[in-house]
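Posting for a labmate who doesn't have an account.
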Amino acid sequence: MMQEGLSLWTVYDNPIDYPDKFVARLFVITKDGPAITESVIICDTLEMIREIMLTQLHLTCIGRYPQDSPKIVEVWL
């Protein structure tokens, strides 16, 4: 069953589970807080991730917060 809430993709640079890759992970923000989903996109370059976010998912980049983990590159809504 699909969770209801605000969906966002967080893009990571070189995460521990996928070294030397850019990874986008789908989170859903619900009344109970953020929940990670099983959806993940793995690419060799940030440009490839951005192309998918723009052309296939039709999302908008909102950047990142200064207090985010250094591994987080940007977030897409």
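Reply:
Got it, the structure tokens are right above this. The beta strands are 6-13, 22-30, 33-43, 61-63, 72-76.
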